[in-house]
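Hi R.,

Here are the chain sequences for the assembly we discussed:
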Amino acid sequence: MVSLLSLYLGGGAELLFGSVKEHHVTLPNQSEPWDMKQLLVWIRGNMLKERPELFVQGDTVRPGILVLINDADWELMGELEYELQDKDNVVFISTLHGG
Amino acid sequence: MCQVDEEYNGQLEHRVTPRVSKKCVKCKENTAVLIIRAGDAFCRGCFKEYFIHKFRAMLGKNRVIFPGEKVLLAVSGGPASSSMLSQVQEGLSRDAPKKLRFVPGIIYIDEGGASGQSMEERERAVAQLESVFRATNYHYHIVHLEQVLSLPSSVLDAGSSATEKPQTGSSYKAAVDQFIQTKKNQHPDLSVENAQSHLSSLSMHEVENGVTSPITPEHTQALQKLFASVRTLTAKEDLLHTLRQHLILHTARTQGYTKVMMGDSCSRLAIKLLSNISLGRGASLATDTGFSDPRYGDVVIVRPMRDYSSKEIAYYNRMFDIPSVFIPGLDTKAQDKASIQHLTESFVTKLQTDFPSTVSTIYRHPPPSCSTLPAGSS
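And here is the predicted structure of the full complex:
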């Protein structure tokens, strides 16, 4: 069962989370394993401080936000269907501010 | 003719989410960790090689940088320009095969006055960036946007080209020889290698690392008044871009830099291309988004990050710990339709998610070679 996840926000996404980049979260227990889709819903409800539409759009993240699970592109892990494991590291980097 | 109910089933390329972990397409051994473009999966090692190689290839293919030349790197602190800075360091390091040879300097423009940041926030950002710049040991200039208000209007004149553009195929070699000759004439007792160490020793000891004169609140107010008089966000962003460009140009000219490297990624350039068409700047598309921008004559602007997508840059920075500083801009947290540029960015980014060839299609046909344009025409 998933208990502890470490989240990291970069590229400006942290602005929506009170400018805090690193978060450690404990997800509530549930019978089925948590997947990314549910995680996004949970983040939206519990962690986002403002302007949810700048992070989550519909079921998935806003276009332009890169998601890494354990340092690998989430496209290689099944994106929204990936099932989270204990101690996974999820990174959200906004690529919208060019630089 | 296209009909409203024409069927497109299966003909449009659409991204398929892979379910099974893939192998790297290059070495075919390691597990892939990143997908770039329309389906190439790379492992960490191959991605790093690919990333570094692309930078060198970009500079090597478009041979505009001469050995020993002073090049100004425009770093905003964002991911793309920070990545560019690290690639320059990588390329200039002693143990790199076929190392790049030019003399870099860094410029950072503090735009906090225009985007409404407080002095403390601006100073904090500058301090963070200064520590990054100091670690590179390159000469750096911190310039405040307020200084643009006191620039002479001569900044708008195109300077004459430093070298004549030879017409033949061996133009690069001839241009390099001419460049070295001109430098020899200026410093008759220094060869190219000595010139390089001479310049770097100058920057370390005699010339103070360029934090230019501190600005007063009156300057900031004057700048804010200027921006407040511009009514739409579109125009503000455009104004900011122009002022930034002039400041960089002025610094390059007064400090003796003949080239400026900007960190525009291909995603950003595709957005810029479409926005510029909407803004009525179609005539200068080639110079605004191409690799080299020679319209200022004596200072040529180059864009070596032109072939990197935002995703590649973000991934590389994360994996290889490239420091970058996030600084909020004019359009941070703005609504989608707040400005033409912001709307275009949202449009292109959204389309790119479902159709990964969007950016490369917008961008595919290389702009006509700038050397065919007669000098002075727009």
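Chain A has a mean pLDDT of 87. The beta strands of chain A are 4-10, 22-26, 56-57, 60-61, 65-69, 72-73, 89-94.

Let me know if anything looks off.

Best,
T.
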